[in-house]
Design brief:
Number of helices: 14
Strand content: 15-25%
CATH class of the domain at 170-279 and 392-415: Alpha Beta
CATH architecture of the domain at 170-279 and 392-415: Roll
Helix content: 40-55%
Structural class: alpha+beta
């Protein structure tokens, strides 16, 4: 505790640098988070980004003070996750970051140069964008690593949800949900409970009288989606927290729901939109690949170059894919098969692999790309669309249950992380 206090005092003391009689004030500290800090410049930058995004979407915003509070909370959680990443030894390397940016550019049908120019126009600095993206990937990996191990989907749950979905018929209907959370401390007393309930009831009254949901969410919500106006995105009803799903079922677009009580606090929901069910069909891909894992002996550059050189040979009609895979691949499941993966649902692969194969044509070989496992190349043999078999339906149900649990446990993990931390929010400087 003493160390954190010393950090707060040391950094917030009014340091000035004198250069040719000019004084430059050192960036002030907005909050102390364990042994780290959140700077005023970071808070101001995030507030400005929210304002810019809102302006593009013609979204009204609450007061600057409310925006600042939400930005501060987001930055505190980011700081805690980045500190945990350091303890875990988790780093996003430049090649991994470059690969992610290349994927984003491809998804937007841009060259890297076009994408870079767009970032500079909209963000001001490409380097700042890169580092912010690196942080987003890192915090996402911290969350995934810590939440995954909390989740177990039992065969009994899969059976129950499968039967329920068959009875309901419209199992693929998706809802775009808005969410506001009036949070409670981990062990609230009666007064805190009453205060939160009164606040939640006032919010629902405002919303039912026509107030803008997203504006109220930005101003008042304690959920992780507050700065996005409470927008949880599109969710199948079986992906939602059970508390939400039970109340959403059968509701119409624009309906207001709540307040709903949980251990986290009082929840208020709305339905921004609903989109209909689709025929349950699955695409399968038949592909082969080679994986090379960077190590102390094999650098990132060497791993990538080995694959790049082979791709050039293969395209020139000189390379033998199966022989190359048997010699170089480090995927034990496919190495001895010449890299063959057989027919599979691409959704089972890691995101980088899945996203790359989604853009490929039959007979095409990819350029090297990075995933969490290492550097890959893929050759796509074929695609096919198949009706949902019983096994495929169970796989779909498993994913839905997993996603629901992931959403619930992510919130729990972040709340616990914050509760266990030393956090001191300092007075705003003028």
């Amino acid at each position: 505790m003493k160390l954190q206090k010393l950090i707060a005092v040391a950094v917030t003391t009014c340091f000035v640098l004198s250069t040719q009689a000019a004084e430059t004030k050192v960036d002030a500290v907005a909050a102390v988070v364990n042994n780290g800090v959140v700077l005023e410049s970071e808070v101001n930058e995030m507030v400005q980004r929210v304002k810019t995004n809102a302006s593009r979407q013609n979204q009204t915003l609450p007061s600057d003070r409310a925006l600042r509070t939400q930005a501060m909370e987001r930055l505190i959680l980011n700081s805690l996750q980045m500190q945990m990443a350091k303890r875990m030894g988790l780093q996003i390397t430049d090649p991994q970051l470059d690969e992610t940016i290349e994927n984003i550019a491809r998804e937007q049908k841009m060259t890297l140069e076009q994408f870079r120019n767009q970032v500079v126009r909209e963000e001001g600095s490409y380097e700042v964008f890169r580092e912010r993206l690196r942080e987003e990937i890192t915090t996402g990996e911290v969350l995934r690593a810590n939440v995954q191990r909390r989740i177990y989907v039992s065969p009994q749950e899969i059976d129950t949800v499968t039967k329920l979905m068959e009875q309901q018929g419209a199992s693929n209907e998706e809802y775009n949900i808005g969410h506001i959370l009036v949070a409670l401390p981990s062990q609230p007393d009666a007064e805190q409970m009453k205060e939160a309930e009164v606040k939640a009831n006032k919010i629902i009254e405002l919303l039912r009288s026509g107030s803008d949901f997203k504006k109220i969410a930005i101003a008042s919500s304690s959920a992780e989606t507050a700065l996005e106006g409470g927008d949880m995105g599109w969710l199948n009803i079986n992906e939602m927290p059970t508390l939400f799903a039970d109340q959403i079922r059968g509701k119409k677009k624009t309906d207001m729901i709540g307040p709903l009580r949980s251990g986290a606090g009082f929840h208020i929901l709305t339905i921004f939109d609903i989109r209909g069910a689709n025929v349950v069909e699955f695409e399968e891909v038949n592909a082969r690949h080679v994986l090379i894992k960077p190590s102390i002996i094999v650098s990132e550059e060497k791993a990538k170059n080995t694959l790049t050189n082979f791709v050039k040979e293969y395209k020139a009609g000189k390379g033998d894919f199966a022989a190359f895979a048997r010699e170089h691949s480090e995927d034990p499941g496919s190495k001895l098969k010449g890299g063959e993966l057989g027919w599979a649902d691409p959704g089972k692969y890691v995101p980088a692999f899945r996203d790359t194969i989604a853009k490929m044509k039959k007979g095409e070989i990819s350029e090297p790309f990075r995933s969490d496992f290492g550097w890959h190349i893929i050759e796509l043999h074929d695609r096919r669309t198949v009706d949902a078999t019983a096994e495929k339906k169970r796989e779909q149900v498993t994913r839905l249950i997993y996603n629901r649990r992931y959403n619930e446990e992510s919130s729990n993990f972040l709340r616990e992380l914050r509760d266990q931390a030393f956090i001191e929010i300092l007075a705003e400087t003028e």
